[in-house]
Structure formats: structure tokens, C-alpha cells
């Protein structure tokens, strides 16, 4: 999608639809939406590309992975700890906090062109049943 502010709204819409399709619990969906928003905003503000890429998938049972790419190799940014009156600089701080609270992890690819996040999903006994169908690992609902 274009590296433009309107893409953050579209990415949130797509992420919500994807989460609903995959029956992600509402509280975790809220985390996903915040993470997608902040990672997309970062890619738009600090990436050097005209486009960004956003994807989510289920790499294994009980795991949700999100990636946002700005396609611009650069040193990965560090989490800032802004003061209470700062008007910006909270994006990665929020990603770090929300991901940690959910029991997940996040970071950047070594070349800094892609931010990623993994979050644990609640599992049911059917998820580990060898006879259960393979989960949909597609990128869209």
C-alpha cells in the first residue's frame, strides 16, 4: 500500500477483518490493531519507500505473526522513553509494552527493512489434534 497516512487506517481495517476471520479474541485483536498502527506509522514516517507492506499469518499453532515492511534497509531504531509532555516518540514504546504484556516478542530484521511481532494465541484441544484440519495460513480473510 502507499506510504501515506491513509494506509494506516486501511491496514487497521484489514487487520481487524483478518483477526475476525481467524477468530482472534477481541482483547488480542485490540493489541494487533495498536501494533499494526504503530508499525505502519513508523514505516511511513521513517522508511524511504513509496510503499509499505503489511502481512499477518499463523506460522504455527498458538502463534500469530505480524510484519510491516518499508523496504528500506537502515539501522533498526531503538525504543524511546519519552517524557509525559512529549508529542511523539511513543510508537515503539507502545509496541514493546503491548507485546510484552501479551507475552509476545518483536523486533526488526537485521537490515532494518521489516518490523515483526509474534503474539501467542489461545489454543484449544482441537488445535493439537493430529486429525484436525491444517489451519488457514493465508494473508487475507
Q: What is the CA–CA distance across the termini? A: 17 Å
Count of helical stretches: 3
Strand order of the largest sheet: 1-2-4-3
Q: Major sheet, described briefly?
A: 4 strands, antiparallel
Shape: globular
**Overall average pLDDT:** 86
* SSE pattern: HHEEHEE
Structural class: alpha+beta
Strand content: 15-25%
Number of strands: 4
Helix content: 25-40%
Question: Low-confidence runs (pLDDT<50, min 5 residues)?
Answer: 128-141
Radius of gyration: 15 Å
Structure description:
- By secondary structure, the chain is an alpha+beta fold.
- It is built from three helices and four strands; from the N terminus they run H-H-E-E-H-E-E.
- The chain has a four-stranded antiparallel sheet, with helices on one face.
- Helix 1 runs antiparallel to helix 2 and helix 2 (26-46) runs antiparallel to helix 3.
- The radius of gyration is 15 Å and the shape is globular.
Chart the SSEs and their pairings.
Blueprint: H1 5-21, H2 26-46, E1 53-60, E2 63-69, H3 91-102, E3 105-108, E4 114-120
Antiparallel strand pairs: 1-2, 2-4, 3-4
Helix pairs in contact: 1-2, 2-3
Q: In a few lines, what is going on in this structure?
A:
The chain is an alpha+beta fold.
Keywords:
single chain; 141 residues; alpha+beta; 4-stranded antiparallel sheet; 35% helix; globular; disordered C terminus
